[in-house]
Amino acid sequence: MRSPVREIFVSVQGEGPYAGYRQIFVRFPKCNLECLYCDTPKEWDMSNKCMIQITPGVNEFKEFDNPLSNDQVLEIIKYYNKIHSVSLTGGEPLLYARFIKELKYSRYPLYLESNMTLPEGAKEIKDIIKYVAGDFKLKTHCDFKGQYEKVFNDTARSFSILRKSSFRDCFCKMIITKDDEKENMLHALDQIKGCLSTLILQPVTPAEKISEPVPVKKVMEFQEAAMDVIEDVRVIPQTHKMWGCL
Fold first, then answer.
1. In order of start, what are the domains of the chain with their CATH numbers?
2. Is 195 annotated as contributing to ligand binding?
3. Is 39 part of any known ligand binding site?
4. 89: annotated binding-site residue?
5. Binding residue per annotation — 170?
6. Fewest CB within 10 A of the end CB: N or C in the chain?
7. Could you read off the pLDDT of 37-53 as tens digits, one per residue?
8. Which Pfam family would be a valid example here (predicted)?
9. CA–CA gap between residue 129 and residue 24 (Å, rounded)
10. Given CA atoms 67, 69, 73, 78 in this order, what sign does their dihedral have?
11. pTM higher than 0.90, yes or no?
12. 65 labeled part of a ligand binding site
């Protein structure tokens, strides 16, 4: 099986409870959502090459023709050493669930970074994913075109499918913006609290469509409220943005 891949590189995880761990990132193109704070370029087509990093921490890449086969990706993964896990990121990796399922022979554990809105994709790969970094989008984060209730329910279903277990760690990341309401966060958290090890509240990083940071007081209030629902609630910004790594 083959799939388009935007890039493969080594860096450190910059978000959530595994921040600082050394990972291979396999970045897939395209997403089914358009979040206001998204920091990944959306323009991409099949004529684009897959960029493979030669040396970790150095902006030197080798071009591969797309789409890549499962065997090609597995061979590239074997090239790198001293890795915690393979981050499957995007875009939205669950769009490529059938391809990901064939990466079960990876040298390193698989770490899914997903918006969690595609439960059928989650079901496809649930038995091979060791770490789940799942988003829960709140009402202000995207233009849901009147479909937020469906997105909400699909997200809750995906968390149920990929819930924490003796084999898998599953945590939720919620972006917090200045326009978010505490009640919406609590409603979302109430649906998935039994599926999680940890809730990460991530203050939004200002971007093209998000010009204002969220006040510290608001984030602290959200954390306090969330701790009535789940014990382990942490505030962690995008740490990789602080030191300029990929």
1. 2-243 (3.20.20.70)
2. no
3. yes
4. yes
5. no
6. N
7. 888 877 778 779 999 99
8. Radical_SAM
9. 15
10. negative
11. yes
12. no
